[in-house]
């Protein structure tokens, strides 16, 4: 067998595949622990590095990550970081500060000054024992200070979104403070990098002067140009390839200029994103174009590269671990303490002030970026780098459980209804279905079905349409949609059909990380008579129902109907098949409701076989209603089928 040697490209492709697979597998575990994706990616990077993979199988790590490949991996990860920092800048919307400028600036600046001071003091104390050879005191102390001051704006945004806190007072203040934090911290970092790279104070001052001049150029010259560009995109209702090319060239140019100036390419990428207009859909379209490539493909490479540089074994002995613990305490006391006290001074109760302190203590990715810059410049040693990576992991990991403990009442479901707040519907009210819409294809048939179940003209007769959005780290996008009352496409389609059939439809939309459970919770809060779901796959077997539908069937305390829609336009003739099983009660309830609330001709077949039901269904019915166990009817019927499931406690 010939000796196979991997080319540089093949090695890189294997590395990318291994990194993505490890990140996604660990993401499953972290999701169950209610942790953000960044934790999984950081741990995956460390696991692939010398601390785990290299310790367990040194030859395997050397084969997958040979030393000559590090430079290529580093360059590719830096490109991912440039794109990602541009996306972070895009999410820094000045309107997030609306109405809370004074509060946000006070809290955020306190949350920078206090941890920076404590970090600098700690750096001064650590200098003799832990500073790299030849590093000046000033650079080491400043980097320790800035590493204690960082807040991970993207990670914070995702945590707020996953906990449904984005539109709450605490969430709004926290995201506004994080926005100010990001701008302040990156300006400080630019100055610190200038000092670290400079060989004299005069050189540092020149670098700072060039940086200020460049910021002025971007704000007063480039920003108006971008505004006109955004208007053209809005007029054409789309982001053309030519427009995309212009933005990418500007991004490369901005990153290159700040790198040449001496304040790092990431600052230029961040600055361009920050000054780009946030009104309209220009910024949102840019995010849609770049996010998948930057976040899914390239960003994990940065975490892996950071993991390859993280050697847990360097933190050796009781003294090193005590210093690491001390750094965790200094970071938490400075960030949490400074933020919480400042929030309390502005008039917030202690519980809300503590929640803001916990949120702003999230470091995650931004901390790793700062640490990698420090390590590349030789300001911090590999040992201090490893210690501070542990600090970033611990403070980020602790955010969600501490927030749940300190601020539990706001971890409940928070529904942003389009025209009403979430309130209980009185028992004894008319039949009220909850329609759950995953896409804009299911709304038409689902509303048609609901119109036949809701009695016309009865007091309080209505249906609810629910659309759940996945969690996001785009606060600017969520803010714009709230301000414009922009509905998701599935709700718009459903509302149009409801107007046609004269159905009073109330729409609900919110972010969810547990769609199945949130559907059940919403049904309880609204006291819905029935949950209606859509299904579009060719086979619908109770044993293979997956995802959200399976979760709802398992946890719902109310009847559930799963509509297999094959073009349902009316409810003229309905065939109801009773099978003699646990779902019969719910099937009969639907039959009674259709007969009482609509003009449909309802035919009930008692204990009929599946063959008989299929034969009858072919004789001109608009809808067949069966239990979920009627597998052949669900898959083989040529017309729309409603599979009904009774909650087991009700059936028993």
Number of strand elements: 10
In the CATH hierarchy, the third-tier topology of the largest domain is known as: Na+/H+ antiporter like fold
Overall pLDDT confidence: 80
The percent of residues in helical segments reads 55-70%
Notes on the structure:
Residues 409-428 and 538-545 have low confidence and may be disordered. The protein has a 10-stranded mixed beta sheet with strand order 1-4-3-2-5-6-10-9-7-8, sandwiched between helices. 63% of the residues lie in helices and 8% in strands. Helix 7 (137-149) packs antiparallel against helix 16 and helix 15 runs antiparallel to helix 17 (382-406). With 652 residues, it is of the alpha/beta class. Strand 2 (433-436), helix 18 and strand 3 (463-469) form a beta-alpha-beta unit. The protein folds into 2 domains: 83-297 and 313-411, Na+/H+ antiporter like fold, CATH 1.20.1530.20; 425-651, Rossmann fold (3-Layer(aba) Sandwich), CATH 3.40.50. It contains 26 helices and 10 strands.
List the helices and strands and how they pair.
Blueprint lengths: L7 H25 L4 H12 L4 H4 L1 H7 L5 H21 L10 H30 L6 H13 L3 H10 L6 H29 L3 H36 L4 H21 L3 H11 L6 H28 L7 H29 L4 H11 L3 H13 L5 H25 L9 E2 L15 E4 L6 H11 L9 E7 L5 H10 L4 H12 L4 E7 L3 H11 L4 E6 L11 H9 L4 E5 L8 E6 L5 H14 L3 E6 L3 H8 L5 E5 L3 H6 L3 E6 L2 H4 L1
Parallel strand pairs: 2-3, 2-5, 3-4, 5-6, 7-8, 7-9, 9-10
Antiparallel strand pairs: 1-4, 6-10
Helix pairs in contact: 1-2, 1-13, 2-13, 5-12, 5-13, 6-7, 6-9, 6-14, 7-9, 7-16, 8-9, 9-10, 9-15, 11-12, 14-15, 14-17, 15-17, 16-17, 18-20, 21-22
């Amino acid at each position: 067998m010939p000796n196979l040697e991997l080319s540089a490209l093949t090695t890189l492709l294997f590395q990318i595949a291994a990194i993505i697979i490890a990140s996604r597998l660990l993401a499953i575990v972290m999701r169950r622990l209610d942790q953000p994706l960044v934790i999984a990616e950081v741990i995956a990077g460390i696991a692939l590095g010398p601390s785990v993979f290299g310790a367990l199988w040194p030859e395997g790590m050397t084969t997958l990550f040979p030393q000559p490949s590090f430079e290529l991996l580093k360059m590719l990860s830096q490109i991912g970081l440039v794109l990602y920092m541009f996306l972070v800048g895009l999410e820094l919307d000045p309107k997030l500060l609306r109405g809370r400028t004074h509060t946000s600036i006070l809290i955020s600046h306190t949350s920078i000054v206090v941890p920076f001071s404590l970090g600098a003091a700690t750096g001064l104390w650590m200098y003799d024992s832990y500073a790299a050879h030849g590093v000046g005191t000033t650079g080491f102390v400043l980097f320790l200070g800035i590493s204690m001051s960082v807040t991970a704006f993207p990670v914070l945004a995702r945590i707020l979104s996953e906990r449904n806190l984005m539109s709450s007072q605490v969430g709004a203040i926290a995201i506004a403070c994080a926005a100010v934090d990001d701008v302040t911290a990156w300006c400080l970092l630019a100055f610190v990098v200038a000092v670290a790279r400079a060989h004299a104070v005069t050189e540092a001052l020149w670098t700072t002067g060039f940086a200020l001049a460049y910021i002025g150029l971007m704000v007063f010259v480039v920003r108006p140009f971008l505004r006109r560009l955004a208007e053209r995109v809005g007029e054409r209702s789309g982001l053309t390839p030519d427009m995309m090319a212009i933005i990418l060239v500007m991004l490369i140019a901005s990153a290159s200029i700040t790198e040449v100036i001496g304040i790092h390419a990431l600052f230029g990428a961040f600055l361009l994103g920050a000054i780009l207009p946030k009104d309209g859909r220009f910024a949102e379209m840019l995010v849609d174009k770049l996010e998948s490539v930057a976040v899914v493909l390239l960003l994990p490479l940065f975490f892996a590269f950071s993991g390859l540089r993280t050697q847990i074994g360097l933190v050796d002995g009781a003294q090193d671990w005590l210093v690491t613990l001390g750094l965790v305490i200094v970071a938490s006391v400075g960030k949490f303490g400074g933020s919480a006290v400042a929030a309390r001074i502005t008039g917030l109760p202690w519980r809300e002030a503590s929640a803001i302190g916990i949120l702003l203590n999230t470091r995650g990715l931004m901390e790793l970026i700062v640490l990698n810059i420090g390590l590349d410049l030789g300001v911090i040693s590999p040992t201090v780098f490893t210690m501070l990576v542990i600090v970033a992991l611990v403070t980020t990991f602790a955010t969600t459980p501490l927030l749940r403990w300190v601020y539990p009442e706001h971890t409940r479901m928070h529904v942003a209804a389009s025209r009403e707040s979430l309130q209980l519907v009185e028992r004894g009210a008319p039949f009220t279905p909850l329609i759950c819409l995953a896409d804009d294809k299911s709304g038409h048939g689902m509303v048609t079905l609901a119109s036949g179940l809701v009695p016309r003209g009865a007091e309080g007769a209505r249906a609810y349409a629910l659309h759940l959005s996945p969690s996001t780290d785009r606060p600017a996008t969520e803010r714009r949609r709230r301000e414009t009352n922009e509905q998701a496409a599935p709700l718009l389609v459903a509302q149009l059909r409801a107007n046609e059939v004269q159905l009073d439809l109330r729409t609900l939309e919110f972010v969810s990380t547990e769609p199945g459970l949130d559907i059940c919770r919403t049904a309880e809060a609204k006291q819905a008579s029935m949950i209606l779901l859509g299904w579009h796959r060719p086979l619908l077997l109770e044993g293979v129902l997956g995802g959200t539908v399976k979760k709802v069937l398992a946890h719902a305390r109310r009847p559930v109907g799963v509509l297999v829609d094959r073009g349902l336009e009316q409810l003229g003739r309905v065939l109801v098949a009773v099978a003699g099983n646990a779902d019969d009660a719910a099937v009969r309830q639907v039959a009674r409701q259709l007969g009482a609330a609509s003009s449909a001709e309802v035919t009930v077949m008692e204990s009929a076989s599946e063959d008989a039901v299929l034969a009858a269904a072919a004789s001109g019915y608009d809808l067949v209603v069966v239990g979920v166990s009627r597998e052949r009817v669900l898959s083989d019927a040529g017309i729309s089928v409603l599979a009904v499931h009774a909650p087991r406690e009700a059936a028993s």
